[in-house]
Write a structure and sequence with these properties.
Helices cover about 35% and strands about 15% of the residues. It has about 500 residues and is α/β, with parallel strands linked by helices. The protein has a domain of about 230 residues: Aldolase class I (TIM Barrel, Alpha-Beta Barrel). It has an 11-stranded mixed beta sheet. The protein has a 3-stranded antiparallel beta sheet with strand order 2-3-4. A two-stranded antiparallel sheet has the order 1-5. Helix 5 runs parallel beside helix 6 and helix 11 crosses helix 16. It is globular, with a radius of gyration of 24 Å. It starts with a strand and ends in a 15-residue tail after the last helix. It binds iron/sulfur cluster (2 copies). One iron/sulfur cluster (SF4) binds next to helix 13, helix 14 and helix 16.
């Protein structure tokens, strides 16, 4: 038998102010274990392959463990082997094993389809950072701003049946989404009502919407567990700041209408995720916004979640120097939360990661390993008002980017090379990710941001993931040790 050595996919997580212990996480077995620093040092000393450095993106070094020669008892060695931290596989065989596991996960994800309707590319707001800005401001795109018609909706539902007939049998309710432009404009009501009715008629389903909520009152009777059950709404600060950013076409603000509609949505029992798009200009407004959330009685209400997301410089109006990386934003929010206890109502960007880790420690559940970052690389089908199909909502509106279209007879005609381009991206196919110990926890990062940086979808976009992952896992473990009770599993709407 080949000699045992440390698995290449072993992750070391240091605990703040605790040099006696270290958390081990295995990159593809999904094992999480607390060990003494002596065991960590043993593993470090038995590594035969170090992660290549530097990889592109925001990598951070592992915790500083001495490279010493240490011996351990047979029982400990055996336990480390069973959990995957020690292996007799060669480096190449381990990489093959990793790829095999990632491929299985990716195949499972490909079989889970979800369907997003973009009833229009039009929107009543003009936010400076919008990635679709050109669709509304460039007259050449004027033809795109119409509303999805009922015949097209009928066609798309036939197309959905066609897509499903090619996949493995579905388990669980169908998942539908509404996205735009702004899907829930008052004028869109007939189309949305028709979509909701047809989706309900297909059987059990869930439906989410990403809406600016300025005209959400026109949909009050379509909000609820059986119809649109979850809405993501954006507030970019308290009234004065928000109204500088999320403005109507005539320059007026939108905060007051949105706040009324958050009340309305919560009263109907739907879950409301308030997203705050944050840069270095509005971050200091967050404590005030948190107080507004308390004053409105949103904080602590069932179904209410507020979270932050870094603005990315995706158009010329967004100054790159004002943006945060996800990790930098997480650190900045953490600082604000220490200074302002009312900020507890606002989740950090990585809260989902921490909650997943907390669930693992508290309930001994299965780790959530994923081979792809979002469902643009698995089963997401985005339909626009013309029956064109796209994989990613940041890549819509240009026919040359569509992965297919639903034809007049309701057949989904797919553009196979483009389908392959989007759906094949996984941590098993992006080389840097295949050689990354964090890969099945990360998924490879956003492909669009990777393309912006490296010119191809098939590149990694690390965004400080190693740092973020270790920080969140350490925090989750300390919460677990302190007996913090995990209240619920809150979900945010995302392509992932
Ligand atoms: S898996 Fe994530 S952290 Fe690792 S190389 Fe890929 S993008 Fe970077
Ligand atoms: S995460 Fe990136 S690739 Fe995925 S849907 Fe969003 S923009 Fe597209």
């Amino acid at each position: 038998m080949a000699e045992l050595h440390t698995s290449y996919y072993t992750i070391y997580v240091d605990l703040p102010q605790d040099s006696s212990r270290i958390l081990l996480v295995h990159g593809y077995t999904g094992a999480f274990d607390m060990v003494s620093t002596k065991v960590g040092t043993y593993l470090r000393g038995n590594e035969v392959h170090r992660a290549p450095k530097p990889l592109y993106g925001a990598w951070t070094p592992d915790p500083d463990l001495p490279l010493e020669s240490i011996s351990l008892g047979d029982n400990t060695i055996d336990a480390l082997r069973r959990r995957g931290y020690l292996t007799d596989l060669s480096f190449d065989d381990e990489v093959s094993q990793f790829r095999h596991i990632a491929d299985i996960r990716h195949q499972q994800a490909l079989d889970r389809s979800n369907f997003v309707f973009m009833p229009t590319y039009d929107c009543n707001l003009r936010c400076f950072y919008c990635f679709q800005d050109h669709l509304r401001t460039d007259p050449a795109n004027g033809h795109l701003l119409g509303l999805m018609t009922k015949p097209v909706i009928d066609r798309i539902f036939r197309g959905i049946e066609d897509i499903e007939s090619r996949n493995s049998p579905r388990t669980g309710p169908r998942n539908f989404g509404l996205f735009g432009g702004e899907p829930l404009l008052r004028a869109n009501r007939p189309a949305i009502e028709y979509i909701v009715g047809k989706a309900q008629a297909m059987g059990p389903m869930t439906m989410w919407a990403i809406s600016n909520a300025t005209e959400l009152e026109a949909y009050a009777d379509l909000l609820g567990p059986e119809a649109i059950s979850s809405v993501q709404i954006t507030l970019d600060g308290p009234l004065a700041e928000h109204d500088k950013r999320r403005i109507h076409t005539d320059g007026t603000g939108s905060f007051a209408a949105i706040a009324r509609n958050i009340d309305l949505a919560l009263d109907t029992g739907v879950s409301v995720q308030v997203r705050m798009n944050i840069d270095r200009v509005n971050i200091d407004q967050l404590p005030t916004l948190a107080r507004v959330m308390h004053e409105h009685g949103w904080a602590g209400r069932s179904g209410f979640v507020a979270y932050t997301y870094p603005i990315h410089a995706v158009n010329a109006a967004t100054e790159r120097s004002t943006t945060f990386s996800q990790w930098d934003l997480d650190v900045a929010i953490d600082r604000l939360r220490e200074e302002h206890p009312e900020m507890a109502v606002i989740d950090r960007p990585d809260e989902r990661l921490r909650r997943a880790a907390r669930q693992l420690f508290n309930e001994g559940g299965e780790p959530h390993l994923r081979a792809e970052y979002c469902s643009a690389h698995s089963g997401m089908y985005i339909f626009d008002a013309f029956g064109d199909i796209y994989a990613c909502w940041e890549r819509t509106g240009e026919q040359r980017l569509r992965i297919g279209r639903v034809d007049a007879s309701g057949k989904a005609r797919m553009n196979l090379p483009l389908v392959e381009d989007w759906r094949s991206r996984s941590v098993a196919t992006v080389n840097a990710c295949t050689h990354c110990r964090y890969a099945l926890h990360c998924g490879g990062g956003c492909a669009v941001l990777a393309e912006g940086k490296r010119g191809t979808l098939h590149a990694n976009y690390c965004d400080g993931f190693a740092n973020r992952f270790r920080a969140m896992v350490a925090e989750a473990f300390l919460d677990h040790e302190a007996g913090v009770v995990f209240d619920d599993v809150r979900q945010t709407i995302a392509a992932s």
